[in-house]
Amino acid sequence: MIRLNLFLLGLLMVCAMSVVTSQHKSRKLYSELQKEAQHTKKLDVEWGQLQLEQSTWAMHSRIENEATRKLGMQLPGSNRTQVILPRGTAVARPKVGDVD
Amino acid sequence: MNAPTQPRTRQRFVQQLKLERWRVWFILAGLMILFGVLIARGFFLQIMDEGFLQQQGEARYARTLKLEANRGMITDRNGEPLAISTPVQSVWVSPRSVKLLPPGQKRPAGWEPSSEKEPVPMSREELAQLAKAVDMPVKVVESRLSTSRKSGDKPDFVWLKRHMAPQDAKKVLELNLPGVYAQTEYRRYYPAGEVTAHILGFTNIDGKGQEGFELTRQDMLAGKSGSRTVIRDRRGFIVEDISTIIPPKDGETLTLSIDRRIQYLAYRELKAAVEANKALGGGIVVLDARTGEVLALANTPSYNPNSRARIDPARRRNRAVTDLYEPGSTMKPITIATALESGKVTPSTVIDTTGGAMGMAGYTIKDTHNYGALTVERVLVKSSNVGTARIALAQDREFLWQHYDAIGFGQPPRTGFPGEASGKLRAWKTWRPVEQATMAYGYGISVSLMQMARAYQVFATDGEIRPVTFTKQVAPLPGKRVFSPEVVREVRLMMEKATQPGGTGTRAQVVGYRVAGKTGTAKKVGVGGYTEKRYVGSFVGFAPVSDPRLIVAVMIDEPHGDSYYGGTVAGPAFSNVMAGSLRMLGVPPDAPTDNILLPGQDEPEVPEET
């Protein structure tokens, strides 16, 4: 009988200790989770700001300016453009004749 | 205590009870009454006055803090941001908890408040520091700090400066001044600025949509702000949460059908055209011909939605959707398609326009030239008013009205935009013959540019019209048939010819693509009838003709340059926008790159007078 009691006591101690540890662990993890959640929010904000920055840099007016002024680029004229369709043929000349 | 004495004591007690009965009852009743009063008072406080008292009690310690929800993003069809909210700091002060010291005095180093209600003294130097940190004159800051209510006591909350950059606000808080706090708010940024101003609109300083989609989709974008109720001590420190925190629900992302690249191109070209023609303003709409999605919508003059300065209401007007104009010749393809649909004419039917004028009920319908006899096709290509009027007069009024109505005239296009104009289309029973004739070439009927672009869907598709939408569609909405495919094919070819030499829209041609469209030049209605010298030039068209993908409608309001004809003022803008958009969308060309045919040097350009 005493042996059983001792065994149960031991079991109780183990359980008590594990309750304490798990409680401690869960608190620690929870605070970590909170920290990570805050981090997520911060990153979200930063993402928004970076997106804003990116779209400001990638403004079409700016790109156009940079390309034509700084890089000296220009759209090729029609006399320097050759259009090839997927079958490798040139575009056929349409007939804009009278409908009647 | 010994046992034998006990009964005797009881006996004596019994003997003492020989009192008057009424005294007992009197005491008992008195106690009962007092008890009753107590219960009544308790009832009164707990049940009758409970709400009031609870509220008063909470007002003395509890504060509900609003947790701001992030306003949803607005993106274009490719996910590029068009409107983003980012957090900013707003600095506020509590005048009640601050007392400004006279100049020269300083707060003692070990100062402690003697009671909860004593305000913290603030020296002049600190005031100057604060003013410098928020970049405001000292006087303004001082007046904010000494704000008082009508009742004489000072308020607990006054904005000092709103929407500061987070790093600036941090500097303010680092001064560690009494009664100065910051709160996170969201500020809206529009990376594309004035280019998308009319579509998106803007929000006010409290983040509420005021115009455009910021207004119509306010509920969806705003989300739901959360709250937490806390107990705060006198100095504003949070002591305890007294209810569960309701987390904020962020707004949803709104994906529009707009393509940012096309939008920018359209705005740029429109602005250039308006400036080149010294016009009052203008509008442009680019539609996807297959789905009815709006790819771009721009107006000039525009405004910068990022600036908080007062915006001139005239600049805020979304001309393409809310302004009405008389469409002029851009109406003719619709009239002619209706006539072909009725079967009363064919493209080769000859119409007599001899004289270039036609008198009706005291009104003269005029052409710029005397064209003589024209086929129906030539009537459209030359944009003859007399010819179109004669064709329309041969039709049944009700039949014409049915088609004008089916194509969306006289009813709002239901794009989900605030303040859409529905235009004017009178009931056919009230039409007089002269009105039937003028309406055929676009006078006596008013439309918005959006309606006109939508109407041209019938020519860009097989005669079907779809609802115009600003939200990205997964699959096109079902269309409604207005014209038969055969009729549409014929009219489409006529409209293509209108852009060829001999037509009015030669400047609308695009390298590598077949283009069809119609010019329009309409006199504006002023006080007492049509005005001279005030016109609206427009061009509505689509490309490529072999398989239409895009519809572009351009409207230039009151051009005062060398020319006011739709073909010359709006045609080039149409051509540039169409060329750029087709290239961006990767639409295969359907014509060789030398397809542009310009009229010869000696051949004058064909202007049209409606």
From TrEMBL, chain A:
Leader peptide range in chain numbering: 1-18
Pfam families given in the database record: FtsL (PF04999)
GO biological process, any: cell division
Tagged with keyword Transmembrane helix: yes
Record's keyword terms, sorted: Cell cycle, Cell division, Cell inner membrane, Cell membrane, Membrane, Signal, Transmembrane, Transmembrane helix
Chief localisation class: membrane
Taxonomy, superkingdom: Bacteria
Subunit annotation: Part of a complex composed of FtsB, FtsL and FtsQ.
General function of this protein: Essential cell division protein. May link together the upstream cell division proteins, which are predominantly cytoplasmic, with the downstream cell division proteins, which are predominantly periplasmic.
HAMAP family in UniProt: FtsL
Family per similarity comment: Belongs to the FtsL family.
Identification of the protein by name: Cell division protein FtsL
Automatic annotation (TrEMBL), chain B:
Domain Penicillin-binding protein dimerisation as annotated: residue spans: 67-241
Protein's UniProt name: Peptidoglycan D,D-transpeptidase FtsI
Domain Penicillin-binding protein transpeptidase: 282-578
Region spans: Disordered: 590-610
Location of the protein in the cell: Cell inner membrane; Membrane
Classification lineage: Bacteria, Pseudomonadati, Pseudomonadota, Betaproteobacteria, Neisseriales
Record EC number: 3.4.16.4
Recorded metabolic or biological pathway in which this protein acts: Cell wall biogenesis; peptidoglycan biosynthesis
Active site: 329 (acyl-ester intermediate)
Job of this protein: Catalyzes cross-linking of the peptidoglycan cell wall at the division septum.
Transmembrane feature ranges: 21-44
Native source species: Chitiniphilus shinanonensis
Main location, first listed in the record: membrane
Family affiliation: Belongs to the transpeptidase family. FtsI subfamily.
Membrane topology summary: Single-pass membrane protein
